[in-house]
Amino acid sequence: MKKSTLALVVMGVMAASAAQAAEVYNKDGNKLDLYGRVKAEHYFSDNASVDGDQSYIRLGFKGQTQINDLLTGFGQWEYQVAANKVEGDPNTAKTRLAFAGLKAGDYGSFDYGRNYGVLYNVAAYTDMIPEFGDDSFVKTDNFMTGRANGLATYRNNNFFGLVDGLKFALQYQGKNENDGRAASKANGDGFGTSLSYDFGDSGFTWGAAYSNSNRTLTQQESSWGKGTDAEAWTTGFKYDANKIYLAAIYAETRNMTPISGTASINGVNTKVSGFANKNQAMEIVAQYQFDFGLRPSIGYIQSKGKDIEGVGDADLVKYIDVAATYYFNKNMSAFVDYKINQLNDKNKLGLNTDDVVALGLVYQF
């Protein structure tokens, strides 16, 4: 059946968040696109720490300049401001992305700055849920799992123009410590790589990624997670065709995933704060795009810490996600997202077990 115009628009939006960016300048080989979103949303939960308004605005630009026949310069910046704080609150804004680089045709591209870690190249497959998800092992400023700073990245699509669909990336992250950041967000020097392959027009993609980083002295001296290296690997697949989206990933981290909570150790309630010696993570997402704009979604996310000192094995994240998004057009959508917490009431780290429902309205361009 021929896809409707709306269905095609929606699929494009899901493939790239800035797909409908506004072109503000395009002349003499210089181009600048502006994109953004306003997300008006509210959480409903018995957990008082998350219940309530969660609205924010996000704004960014992508620019490029043609230097010569082969070389192109590019840059991107993205900023977010919370709309659920009182005026004058100094903790309302943050820089999500800020990097610049050069691209040389089939030879690939190189960029440096605040960007996504190389592990996210695979983790992005399941980062499709309207509000929740993508939290089994991806954390902001946690080595090369999510957004982080000090990232130098080389990317190559289609393997130097020789193999369509074969992509790889190499990434180096410089040391980030002694600048006032928490130990859970610090890192030593590290290296990562990813590889993926698009199987022609089948809609099927497979990917894998790996990273290894030095840990800071503070991290090594922690009571939980004492290793000298933080290591992770992940693999996954996605299928995106015929209005169906299916994706699954599996990952393991060592001395990398932050843990916190309160555990009974030798009969004494003890505050736990550090890193899991090992973490096993998995995420599964399934969605279907109806021609009239509705996109239902179901997912499962689990993260299990292994061999935690004094605790043993413990679930860190475990929930079923049921959601639906309705696209009025390419710029306006509404969603409801129900996070059904599956953590046991007597989980070993005393983590919150309440469900959360997110309700929102999104305008984006």
UniProtKB/TrEMBL annotation:
GO terms for biological process: monoatomic ion transmembrane transport. It is a multi-pass membrane protein. Keywords: Ion transport, Membrane, Porin, Signal, Stress response, Transmembrane, Transmembrane beta strand, Transport. GO terms for cellular component: cell outer membrane; pore complex. The keyword Transferase does not apply. It comes from the Bacteria. Gene3D superfamilies: Porin. Transmembrane segments: none annotated. Belongs to the Gram-negative porin family. Uptake of inorganic phosphate, phosphorylated compounds, and some other negatively charged solutes. This is Outer membrane porin PhoE. It comes from Enterobacter lignolyticus (strain SCF1). The lineage of its organism: Bacteria, Pseudomonadati, Pseudomonadota, Gammaproteobacteria, Enterobacterales.
